[in-house]
Amino acid sequence: MDELKAPQCTDGPQKIHSAIRTLWLISSLTSCAIGATATIVMEYAFLRSLDLNWRIPVVTPIFWILTVTWSVAMIKRRWASWLYEVTDREVVLKWGVWNRVERHIPRDRVQHVDITSGPLARKLGLAHVHLYVAGAHGAVGAIPGLTPEEADDLRRMLVEAQAEHV
Amino acid sequence: MFEQPHRLHPAAIIINFGSYLVKTIKTLFPPIIALVASGGRSGVHNVALYLGLSVAGIGGIAFFASIFHFLSTRFWVESESLVITSGFIWRKRRTMPLARIQNVNVERTIWHRLLGAAQVKVENASGHQGEGGLDALSVTEANQLQALLLHHRATVETGEAPIVQPIYALSLKQVMLAGMLENRVTYILAGIFTTLQFDKSETVISPLVAASQKLGPTMSIVVGVLAFAALIVIGWIVSIVISATRFYGFRIDKHDRGLMLTHGLLTQFKAVVPVGRIQSVRINQPILFRLLGYCEMFADTAGSFDKKDQATANKICPILPEHDVSTVGCHLMPHFEYETLQWRRVSQKTVWRHAFRYFILCSVIICGALSIRLHWHALWMTVPIAVGAAAVGWMAFRFVGYAFTDNNLAARRGIFRKQAILIPFDRIQHYAITSTYFQRAMGLANITAVSASTGGHAIHIADLDATTAAELSNAIGQAVRGHLGSRRGGL
After folding, report:
1. A59-102: per-residue pLDDT in tens?
2. In the predicted model, what is the mean pLDDT of residues A124-147?
3. Helix and strand tally (H, E) in chain B?
4. Closest Cα to residue B238, out of B270, B191, B298, B194?
5. Among A99, B92, B232, B269, which is most buried by a count of CB atoms within 10 Å?
6. Interface membership of B452 toward A (CB under 8 Å)
7. Based on the number of CB atoms within 10 Å of its own CB, is B160 exposed (0-12), middle (13-18) or buried (19 or more)?
8. Taking Cα atoms as reference points, which of A103, A158, A109, A116 lies closest to residue A133?
């Protein structure tokens, strides 16, 4: 039975899985494509309404090209900034490129843990762990890009801590 | 006592019906006023007829809905849970474990008092509103249910009154002063503009425009200023009347389970705030309060419904002399300290960050607006704006700060409306150290500490030196770890 017991802490700060970069890239490109289509159509309609000779949208395509370039360039740094650690007392999450956050969640405060994975994340072999505490409107900590085994280990670590506390 | 299913008091029919009707009339109030003001313009009578028919239709539906609600609603206590069932077509059964109940309020509006009834509102930590509401019970039943839900079973069974010790009371003069320090002119202006929005035939606006044209520009300005001053006076009087009626007879008593707040002239509130569930205490000082040495005090519990400007359980005291803060506060937290706190300032660089932010914001708004007439000359306005922004930044630096004791973390913020918030370490759910790119460039960071209060009032200390922030984060971590397991109230 001891072999099945999850470790109580992580071995220092942990990086998230590198496959998350593919997921972020696809998500970023998809949302940019949707936004670009909508705004380019709007710009085209606006130019038509002005009755000009020039009717080819320029502003929004340039904006979206810059946005996509920026998002793609930031993905590696975003991934590199992500660290999580479970100590004997708290869960520590660090993330952010421009706005950096280091959040400490005492293990004792965790009310419940969710593991989620969408179709694309499942295809890439990834799962996300969400941590909830009392009084918050949503998850106060969401660790993206773990393997399902890592996610399950993390859940067991925190759930077992809860059970021991009770 | 409540083991068997109980019905509501029959007054629930009239009270529910009245409540639906008042809500409908409130919604339709601006168009009704606009119609009345429009007088006999063509086509308006038809609209009035449709409006009248709509009100009558809604009233009819509301009447039958109230009867059905009364007939279908039952409540009882079983297996340490309050159960409320309601509905004929869509049946609903709500079960609230007594251990999860955060607060139970007994309220008596003027209608309840005329009909000899009282309303019971039950809160748990799951949302922003009262999760269990019983519209009308007899006063005895309401008090017994409140005591039972707050674990006073012995008191209920023996029929003895719970032990109540007076802590603090406000005189009528103080209550009126609380109203005098506020002004509801914005509500009045909003009401006027909403009504004018429905004045499509311009029955009200056109004569006003015509009258102002007759008066000439100077007199129009004078009349406008006088009208605005009159509105401010009216708003002031309205605030005094509202405060006097809402907080009349305000009293805080120490109850077996927490603090009992009693107040109200027309609607009587009797709320018990369970002290063990308090997550944070806030002390607000709007500018007029501060000048006269007063403040307002709030206590956020998990599940408190924080409706601003309404007499809810989390407004502990509407007006309190600064020197009495600890008199009340020591009953809210076991280790309450306020006057003796050693406040520490954040980094002086906050002046420049605030100044830069206010300068950019005000320059864009003011210079942008003036540039329509003044063109490039509008940029001269950036000089006084820069001076003003620097002054505001300095004021922010002077007041913003933080303090901590062995048991509590405190922070204060605000320039004109100042606020201090205290969270016991054993209530902190999570804490974070954050920094934006610009803050890192200046060597600054923020600290945030969050409790389980659903009102969302967290401690946010902005613009600490990065090293101080790291040290404070460690200190909070150690204090939180030191207090784990000492939590009161189950959260």
Report:
1. 899 999 999 999 999 999 999 999 999 998 899 999 999 999 99
2. 88
3. 16, 20
4. B191
5. B269
6. yes
7. exposed
8. A109
Helix (H) or strand (E) holding B166: strand B165-169
By 3-state DSSP, what share of chain A in percent is helix, strand and coil, each rounded to 5? Answer: 50, 25, 25
Q: What distance in Å separates residue A98's CA from the closest CA in chain B?
A: 5
Question: Is A101 in Cβ contact with B430 (below 8 Å)?
Answer: no
Of A99, A100, A135, the CB nearest to B429: A135
Give the whole-number percent of chain B exceeding pLDDT 70: 86
| Closest residue to B430, CB basis, from A133, A137, A165 | A133
Determine the residue among B102, B429, B476, B491 to mutate to test chain A binding: the one whose Cβ has the most chain A Cβ atoms within 10 Å. Answer: B429
Give, for A68, the enclosing helix (H) or strand (E): helix A59-81
The DSSP H or E segment spanning B382 is helix B382-399
* B 339-398 → A contacts, CB under 8 A: none
Q: Is A104 on the interface with B (CB under 8 A)?
A: yes
Beginning with the edge strand found earlier in the chain, give each strand of the sheet holding A141-146 in spatial order. Answer: A110-116, A127-133, A141-146
Q: What is the dihedral of CA B133, B136, B139, B143, to 10 degrees?
A: -10
Residues of A in contact with B453 (CB under 8 A): 135
A90–B481 C-beta distance less than 8 A? yes
* pLDDT tens per residue across span B388-399: 999 999 988 888
Interface ipTM > 0.90: no
Partner A contacted by B434 (CB < 8 A): yes
DSSP string, B412-474: EE-SSSEEEEEEEGGG--EEEEEE-HHHHHTTEEEEEEE-S-TT---EEEEEEEHHHHHHHHH
Categorise residue B447: left if φ over 0, alpha if ψ from -120 to 50, beta otherwise: beta
Q: Which residues contact B211 (CB under 8 A, 6 or more apart)?
A: none
Nearest to A104 among B456, B477, B485 (CB): B477
Contact B402, B461 (CB under 8 A): yes
Of A98, A109, A137, the CB nearest to B429: A109
Residue B93: its pLDDT value, please? 78
